[in-house]
Amino acid sequence: MGLTGIQIFKLLPKTNCGECGVPTCLAFAMNLAAGKAELDSCPYVSDEAREQLAEASAPPIRPVAIGAGTRALKVGGETVMFRHEKTFYNPTGLAAVIASDMDAGALDRKLKEWNALQFERVGLNLRPELVALKDVNGDASAFTAAAKKIAEESEFGLILMSDSLDALRQAIEASAFKKPLIYAATSDNAEEMGNLAKENGLPLVLKADGIEDLIALSDKLTAMGLKDLVLDSGAREPKQLFEDQVAIRRAALKAGNRSLGFPTIAFPCEMADNLDVETMIASMLIAKYAGIVVLSDFKGENLFPLLVERLNIFTDPQRPMTVTEGIYEIGGPDENSPVLVTTNFSLTYFIVSGEIEGSRVPSWLLIMDTEGLSVMTAWAAGKFSGDLVGAFVKKSGIADKVAHRKVIIPGYAAAISGEMEEELPDWEILIGPRDASLIPKYLKDLAK
Amino acid sequence: MAYEAPLEKYPVKIREVILGGGEKARKIGGENALPLHFFEGSLPNPPGLALEVLDTRPENWAPWILEPFEDVASDPMSWAKKCVEEFGAEILCLRLLSTDPAGKDASPGEAAKTVEQVVKAVDVPLVVLGTGDEEKDSQVLIEVARVCSGKNFLLGPVLKGNYQEIAQAALEHGHCIVAQASMDANLTKELNIALCKFFPPERIVVDPTSSALGYGMEYTFSIIESIKLFGLADRDNMMQMPVFADVGIECWRTKEAKESRDQGVLWEATTGITFLLAGANLLVLRHPEALRLIKKITTP
Asked: Are the C-beta atoms of A194 and A218 separated by less than 8 Å?
């Protein structure tokens, strides 16, 4: 875990050659400690020092890569308990189960159906990443055929779930290029499973009976040289599972427990008898600490809320979300509909557009790029000044869409109206309310 | 080395607020641990889950959110009864939409009369909400407080611009209040400090304002979480009020909820669950199925 700058400095050559880009080794060490520099920038660091530093600076929760291609994902790598402390980095992977006895035609249809579950939102494509292929009858050839088909014919990554080493070995041979996650090493088969994962360079789930058992298992496999582990505490009841998620995350981050410094996997599919309840459990696990969540099925109505929750929870709170600059139509406006202008901070946009929609007055909403600042901040920073807003209204092309020449500005930016009039001599500048919640009343009064 | 579970114990707790009266009174808050952290503290009261009732027939609701209430939507008393008797609501939230100055603009007297009738029809605790118009809410909620004196409602939203009048009436007539400050933990604290100069802190519930999944949910989530951590980890006694989240109204105006019934229900339930995980103590929900789902996994 985090070394101090001084501790790092002791391991550096102390020549102050400056080739790393900063004048002294001490300054470089400070930058390394703050995460602002890469050790590779120093050409003279010894291998021994490199190893020590790498180990000491290893993240408290190891990031583990699963899958290959467009739906490859990385889980783990988290550094905080609460997203507002910094951010959560690697969104929870979403998986659903396919049983190995599904016939080829049904599997085809299933993959097609799941592949179509992609949702566009704020310029991103939201979709699940994984299929959990479950060996349900010990038929190694059926398991392998399904693994091969999923790996070759779909974009999905794989979790290969079987108790049979033989079935896993064959399935891995057919799908190793897709970097599947192997499920699972237990206290009964740890050595064989460990070797299988190690030989193939694949990530491995450890399934234990409680946290202490998990630590023993993790230590055993780490001693064998395995690094990419995923933890299943064995809990299949929401209360215990939640407790385990918190304990594992806390032990790794707060108590420096290396044995638990790995992402987790959880199985709502084994915890409920219908998909809606599974969805509820999954929504808890996305907010609190699961690396991968396995559902019994993907259905649009269930998956979409989870994908959006994941997007929201894993958004970096330090970087404001923005929406694209442009003209937004709300409620089917026409040439007589009012025109409003505001900033591109996503929350501003969501609140303002929500209120306009609620007013049921069809309107044109102009969103101006203020680098994600809200109205008051953007105005104070000079990014929502009269000349800039005026110029934006002009070039936005809204004049071609409406017959009138009136534009409504946010109440908090009332001071810019004079400057705007100069920039837009044909336009009347109207001052809207300060609080977005008063927009409906404002628009209704305006329409009278 | 033996494993020791890394527990976090706080020497303080969130205030317990009692809603309603009689046998059906409900307590919320009172916990000395983060939400669902049963393993390291005491969480004596499960989260309050209120179903919403409007005092006027809803307009422009998607068919699947109107459907459960279709037969009672024009009659708040029957609507309230149905929520309690058929959908198992243990708390109701009566929204006085009719008083909206931009809408029907019903008088404080008319609104209070409806509240009086609803309170006669059901015996569960009532949250009574105005429309967020500072001036009008002040008149309406004061009248409601007076007419239903002693009923221990949770009245809101109480804002920076009208907290004095409404809290004064709540104090005189024995009600609790929802102190609302928008999306900023510091503003929540400021309002609490101002209120506590004359109002008992154990009758305040705070509302940092809600948002729906996909529409700023993460802001609400993190502000609720920060408020709870200020209260418990930093022991700030002006941040130890239970947290309120008005979930249904936000979720059911999204286009995603209007696209299909199942998606709408899950949009609301997912938003609600995440707020509970952040630390909310009282949710206002709209769809009975969202209530059922959340109850199913939060009731121990």
From this structure: no
Q: Which residues of A touch B97 (CB under 8 A)?
A: none
Q: Does A351 touch chain B (CB under 8 A)?
A: yes
- CB–CB of A350 and B39 under 8 A? no
Which of B222, B256, B294 is facing A83, going by the closest CB pair? B222
**In chain A, where the domains are located:** 5-57, 64-313, 326-447
Q: Which residues contact B127 (CB under 8 A, 6 or more apart)?
A: B19, B50, B91, B92, B93, B94, B153, B154, B155, B156, B178, B282, B284
- The identity of residue A201, as a single letter, is G
Q: Residue B159 and residue B148: Cα distance in Å, rounded? A: 21
Q: Give the residue on B whose Cα is nearest the Cα of A219.
A: B1
A364 pairs with which residues across the strands? A329, A339
Q: CA A122: distance to chain centroid?
A: 14
B296 neighbors B273 (Cβ within 8 angstroms): no
**CA-closest candidate to residue A209, choices A224, A231, A229, A183:** A231
Q: Do A305 and B263 touch (CB under 8 A)?
A: yes
B35's tokens: 């939400």
Half-sphere exposure for A300 (CA within 13 Å, toward CB): 13
Query: What's the residue count for chain A?
Result: 448
* Cβ contact, residue pair B214, A312, below 8 Å: yes
Write out the two tokens for B294.
Answer: 């959340």
CATH code for A64-313? 3.20.20.20
Report which of A315, A374, A314 is spatially closest to residue A344, judged by C-alpha positions: A374
CA B214, CA A412: separation in Å to the nearest integer?
26
The runs of H, that is alpha helices, within A288-428 are 300-313, 346-359, 375-380, 386-396, 417-423
DSSP B98: G
Phi, psi of A131 (to 5 degrees): -110, 130
The total number of residues written for chain B in this structure = 300
ipTM: 0.97
Token pair 């154990």 in the structure block, residue? B202
CB-CB: which of A239, A280, A350 is closest to B293?
A280
Question: How many angstroms away from the CA of B100 is the closest CA of chain A?
Answer: 9
Give the model's pLDDT for residue B1.
55
Give the residue on A whose Cα is nearest the Cα of B249: A358
Is the alpha carbon torsion for A376, A382, A385, A388 positive or negative? Answer: negative
* A283 contacts B270 by C-beta, under 8 angstroms: yes
Q: Per CATH, the architecture of A326-447 is what? A: 3-Layer(aba) Sandwich (3.40)
Judge: domain A5-57, CATH 3.30.450.20.
Answer: no
Provide, as residue numbers in chain B, all residues whose Cβ is less than 8 Å from the Cβ of A243.
Answer: 37-39
Domains of chain B: 16-25+45-298 (3.20.20.20)
What averages of pLDDT result for each successive group of 10 residues across chain B (300 residues)? 88 98 97 97 97 95 96 97 98 97 93 97 97 95 98 97 98 98 92 98 97 92 97 98 97 90 98 98 98 88
From the list B60, B270, B297, which residue is nearest A309 (CB)? Answer: B270
Contacts of residues B1-6 at CB distance under 8 Å and 24 or more positions apart, as own/partner, are B3/A211, B3/A212, B3/A215, B3/A251, B3/A257, B5/A211, B5/A247, B5/A251, B5/B39, B6/A247, B6/A250, B6/A251, B6/A254, B6/A255, B6/A257
What is the DSSP-derived secondary structure letter of residue A340? E
Mutate to test the interface with A, among B7, B59, B221, B291 (most CBs of A within 10 A): B221
CB atoms within 10 A of CB A223: 9
Q: pLDDT per residue over A136-163, tens digit each?
A: 999 999 999 999 999 999 999 999 999 9
